[in-house]
Automatic annotation (TrEMBL):
This is LacI family transcriptional regulator. It comes from Mycolicibacterium frederiksbergense. It comes from the Bacteria. The keyword Transcription applies. PROSITE patterns: HTH_LACI_2. It holds the Pfam family Peripla_BP_3. Keywords: DNA-binding, Transcription, Transcription regulation. Residues 5-59 form the HTH lacI-type domain.
Amino acid sequence: MQRRPTLEDVATRAGVSRALVSIVMRDAPGASEQTRDRVRRAADELGYRPDHRARRLRQLRTKLIGVTFTAGQEFHADLVDGVYVAAEELGYDVVLSAITPHRDEARALRTLIDEQCEGLVLIGPQAPARRLAELATRVPVVVLARRIRGVDAVRSDDVVGALLGAEHLIELGHHRIVYLDGGRAPGAAERLRGCRRAADAAGVALEVRSGGLTEREGAAAATAMLAESELPTAVFAFNDRCALGVIDVLIRAGVPVPQQVSVLGFDDSPLAGLAHVDLTTVRQDALGLAASAVQRLAGRLDDPDGPCGTVDVVREPALVVRGSTGAPRVSACGNGSSK
């Protein structure tokens, strides 16, 4: 599909500034007749036509950014806070629409559209990529924490983040590592790929088990481990909530963390840094991610005739080492710790 010519294209062809082209197209004062003729000739040659719909949108602005997020996900709450900060700096207001067990994503999106939000920031959406791409043809959309082909996206490099976490455990000397997978959650496939890459490079066997996104799912996984003859020396959970569920069950069962089992999470949620939790985790830059998403969306809203094409902004996470990980305990016979 051929790209629609923009004001920038006309400016380049005519050898003038984009602002001057805008003046000519709006029949506003500030350009000579000679310049007007040159600009109009360049526009005709390129087949440029003013977007009157975009002009109407500029004249009838709500300055509202709609945000969908999953209630109960701490990292989503951190991103929402960052969206508020970035939106205020750019003169926008924010409308939130939560996804809950009794309110699905489709309903959350309809609410924001009914509220006449100019653009949408979707945090970790679960909808099929095709549906999100179709939505983006009707309203400007930026997806946070998930990559979608054909839609603007801002995300952490989940492969790198998981690689950092797995390498940390391997460098400590762990060779029996369980990774609790995130299933179909955004970023789950990438985090699993990063873990496997680190394990393969070190020649370490990585056991992948069903984990999940919540404390309850982490607790269920830990309970299953306790019923087996031997515990792993380290558990890498898909996110911090899952890791907290693992730690809670282990401690209640009298299994010391990290002396017998090291536990590592992902996200660096507020709870991870509490003294009695002290969770080693992979930190995502919530404020930076949110700011990038809002800036991209505001740029599209403020300049509908700007450059076409989508962006995929990727920010690198960082490992935060705390007290929940350590070297595996070695028994007198030289084997790792057992249950």
